[in-house]
Amino acid sequence: MRVIGHRGTPIHPTYPENTVAAVRTALRAGADGVEVDVRATEDDALVLSHDGDLGRVLGTGGGTGPVIAGTPLAELRSVDLPGGTGVPTLTEVLDLAAVTGAYVVTEVKPEAGGPDARRTARLLVALLEDRRRRRPGADRVTTTSFDLATAASLARCGTVSGALIVAPEVDPDRAALRARAHGLTDVHLHVTHVRDDPSVVDRVHALGLLVAVGIVDDPDEAEGMAALGVDLLCTDDPVGLGFARAGSTSADAAVVAG
Length: 258
What we know:
The chain is an alpha/beta fold and 258 residues long. It has helices at residues 20-28, 55-58, 73-77, 90-100, 115-134, 148-153, 172-181, 191-196, 200-206, 219-228, 238-246, 250-257; strands at residues 2-6, 33-40, 46-48, 103-108, 141-145, 161-165, 186-190, 210-214, 232-235. It has an eight-stranded parallel beta barrel, surrounded by seven helices. Helix 1 (20-28) packs parallel to helix 4 (90-100) and helix 11 (238-246) packs across helix 12. The longest helix is centred in the middle third of the chain and has 20 residues, at 115-134. It is globular, with a radius of gyration of 17 Å. The relative contact order is 0.15.
């Protein structure tokens, strides 16, 4: 089972989510890879940001920061995020992961799809195709989206797989059937899907699809997911989970997290 740091290391006390520092921390802790949120800037650069603007990450509140889709890359790069970090491009994160062969799960935002998601997906396809030509075999990328149309547009463009993310209120079996019909290879289930019905993992596997589950931070639950045959686990605490997998103490984990 591969363990993936959700947005890098979102609970890190210093580094914000979706930054190079958060990604590096997750990988140093032994995570097999990271999940990052991808948005397009005004001038068609791909950067990392979960929200449509930077207000929440800056600590000023959602809706108060620069809007990603309406701001050029150079202006976003001039914004100082907490911990001495900045807004990274997707290329920076892919280059960092490629050094060790780590996995990168790219989630196209916004979740609801629409014009911004379609534009971001087109740019992501172009970027991955270009990287594949220039650096064959360097990247391990899974493309994902909550929106089926967006996810389907990315099918077979990732170097590893293409996935549909299933919201907690959506029936996972029906979502898996739709994913397979649209050429996708994975479904990313909410942890409540598996808690409520552990046999869903086997049913999705029977369709020929891989199963990811998130968000799981508890080491015992992570072991249980592995026992069920989950292929990929997404966690908000790759440092703590990584040390638990290695048999280290929480005190040791705190040293690395700091």
